[in-house]
Design brief:
Blueprint: H1 3-29, H2 35-49, E1 56-60, H3 66-73, E2 77-82, H4 85-95, E3 103-106, E4 119-125, H5 134-144, E5 145-155, H6 171-174, H7 177-181, H8 192-200, E6 204-210, H9 212-221, E7 233-238
Parallel strand pairs: 1-2, 1-4, 2-3, 4-5
Antiparallel strand pairs: 5-7, 6-7
Helix pairs in contact: 1-4, 2-3
């Protein structure tokens, strides 16, 4: 199997899992008892991380669009992509009811199909851990950013003891051995693994911010079944 065939096979598994998972994932994101507080907390995080609005923002691996909708509410012009069609379908349905909603498209986070210098900021949340070829992805993201553009990614060390620790139904089927071997950050024990890749890609002014406001919400409301409460981090960098 060639490198291209391997990447295609890996991504097909990821797309199938997240499309299958989309309704339950979105329902968890939209829990009514927590939603307003989540939106407020994430709005503050992204407001501080992103350039002043309005800016052209690309949200990669957007899922059902939670982050993209926050960006739009902050006044940004938002394009958002994902390869899981089930996720994008949910996001588009929600966007159809809103003014100034993000433009949701099917697209690959590793190789976004946009011209160089198209965006002022690129974001993603909970994508780095499950990203194939992160070095290639970061190089592509850097090309898409304008001078002084911002990269802002949120993630954590979800599976430091190994992906076998995830009991979510269907996970082991789609995140099989060949997929796991293709995801360099999936079992990282420190956020520094992500930070080092960002630095190596040529980004500047790299900072890491622990997201204590989200940790407090997770402790109060709980997290997805089978997961542990885990401190998340914002990794922010610029192109200059």
């Amino acid at each position: 199997m060639t490198l291209t065939q391997t990447a295609t096979s890996v991504q097909a598994n990821l797309n199938a899992y997240w499309t299958e998972r989309a309704p339950l994932y979105d329902a968890h994101q939209q829990r009514p008892e927590r939603l307003a507080r989540d939106v407020a907390a994430w709005s503050e995080i992204w407001r501080e991380a992103l350039p002043d609005a309005p800016a052209d923002v690309l949200d990669l691996g957007t899922g059902s669009g939670f982050v993209a909708f926050v960006h739009a509410a902050l006044g940004h012009r938002v394009t958002a992509t994902d390869l899981a069609e089930g996720m994008v379908e949910i996001a588009r349905d929600r966007a159809a009811t809103m003014a100034g909603a993000p433009d949701f498209r099917i697209g690959d986070a590793v190789a976004p199909d946009f011209a160089p210098g198209s965006f002022d900021a690129i974001t993603n949340r909970y994508v780095m851990w499950t990203l194939r070829e992160p070095e290639e992805a970061l190089a592509n993201w850097r090309r898409l950013l304008r001078p002084g553009g911002v990269l802002a990614v949120v993630d954590s060390t979800w599976f430091p003891e190994g992906l076998d620790a995830n009991p979510t139904p269907g996970f082991a089927q789609w995140y099989d051995e060949h997929v796991r071997r293709a995801l360099p950050l999936a079992e990282a024990r420190s956020i520094e693994a992500t930070v080092e890749l960002v630095r190596s890609a040529g980004f500047r002014d790299v900072t890491v911010t622990p997201l204590t406001s989200i940790l407090e919400l997770d402790r109060e409301y709980g997290v997805a079944p089978g997961h542990e409460v885990t401190l998340q981090f914002l990794v922010r960098a610029t192109t200059a």
